[in-house]
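Notes taken during the Thursday session

The instructor put the following on the board and asked us to keep it in front of us for the whole hour. The protein is Cytochrome P450. We were told not to look anything up and to reason only from what is written here. First, the residues (580 in total):
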Amino acid sequence: MYPFSLQDGSILIVTAGFACHVVFGRYEPVKPLSHMTLLVFVPGILTTTVSSSFSSTVRALAFTYLLYYTTILTSILAYRLSPFHPLAEYPGPIPCRISKFWMAWISLDGKQHKYYSKLHQKYGDIVRVGPNELSFCDVNAISPLLGYPGLPKGPHWDGRMAEQTTIRALISVRDPAEHARRRKPWTRAFSSAALKGYEEILGKRAYEFVTALEQQKQPINLTQWISHFTFDFMSDMAFGGGSDMLRDGDKDDTWHLLESGLPLALILSHVPWLGQYYIKLPGIGADLKKFRSFCQERALRRHHQGSQSKDLFHHLIDEAGIERCPPTFAEVASDGVLAIVAGSDTTATTLSSLFWALLDNPTAYRRLQEEIDRYYPPGEDAVSTAHHQQMNYLNAVINETLRLFPPVLSGSQRSVPKGSGWKAVGPHVIPEGTSTFVHLYSLHRDPRHFSPMPNAFWPERWLTAEERRSFGCPDANDLAKATVVHNTAAFIPFSSGPANCVGKNLAYQEMRTVVCLMMQRLDLRFLEGYDPRSWDHDLKDYFVATKGKLPVVLSPRTCGRHDNPIEGHNDSELTLPCSI
Ligand code: HEM
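Then, after some discussion, the predicted structure tokens were revealed:
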């Protein structure tokens, strides 16, 4: 080694730095041992080439590491910003193009959906939001990216589910063939026949929920009550019970564990290789780890108890013995955790947003109340699903809520597999190794698809002009003159294609049942002093949205039809169409 001059040694270090960047770019090593080798051992060995030029080993080490890291960083920076990068043609802010750490930083405050939305307004329908990632606000991208055969799930799951080293939850299975195999029991679990079987479990929980609400004499935080209800219901479905948050509150801190782990999970999804460190460090992500082991323990208990009813677990574990190759317990346990996370927070967010929107829009509240009173007058069983399909206004209110506040605000990632070459999305070529997603928040509020008032809660947009008239909308005539754009192809709150939300029908059933029962039996109003504008402000995007408080005052309805309990409230959104 000693014959090296400082110049020769430096050239060697710089060359090794470039080589290191190439290795990272091509093989994307994630294991800490690979990182140690490339980032610690290699420069350590290279120090010997320059040590004779320095008065001490410490100085030689400092020089080598500094030069090595500077070379790597310069090389990465130059490449990612250069016209030679495969995504060079796509516009995006410089920090996004340089590193995913930027998005990890931006997403910390839960406002990444707003950030992406601003980027789409500035840069257009396709934005480069990471060195190798594109966000789409383009209805024509839905089918190529998400539809059949679509693209496999993206690497963001590698970080999010890092501790699931051997068996992964369905949502994060990246191999399409394996994903299709794992999805089979889920599809059966949400067939029409299976859903019919869940009516009893749902009805029982919904009655408990609304009865408990009826007893509340003081103002309540409705989001918390709804969250506890959805959690109890999904626990019934996934683990045959074991949770009674409605009765006991969050005494085990479970809901807190679920939501407090979300910001870290989002960071890990932006920088997936960090996941390998997260699983090894005992203090990091304790809440996330605790929540997952809590669910796993419930799954184990449910497995030992055996079947009490045909719940979700019954189908997932294949208790009926239908599958030739039944899923393993490990697979089902990890899917049980998924059922709780995917099934409770999403519906809780939608239901909470729905009641917020109704209370903020008295005309919509009144119209829905009238419809519910027509189909479910006093004495009528409001948890029966018999009328759900005919209830156009109810379905319009749910869809309008999902349009404005999709619980997965920024959509779910896909990636163009390495070795596949590229993927065509209309006239655009998306090179292999690129991660992509359709940004739901931007797409759902795009005036090219939803107009007028793309940012306003206006359920009437989901009705035909004829239906609008049948509701006696005073705005119907004015709207007949306005151009109403309503492109349902751009409405994908449950994503799309072979890996979309498999629980969609259960979610609709649950939301319709709860809304009908609550509005049959309760009047709601905002607590005086509550500022409705805080809802949007408090809504945070941690892949699954989290929401703020919704303070409401409840009063039992004594007879079926009531005057609008919030008559006189300033209903600014709904006066707008008349002035178009
Ligand atoms: C309003 C309610 C809900 C919304 C808006 C929603 C939305 C979504 C979205 C956007 C995805 C990602 C799909 C993708 O990767 O493309 C997803 C996946 C999933 N959801 Fe839902 N979800 C809801 C309720 C539920 C419920 C009640 C369940 C029941 C357990 C559920 C179970 C799942 C599962 C298992 C997946 C993974 C599907 C797969 O990868 O094949 N979801 N959901």
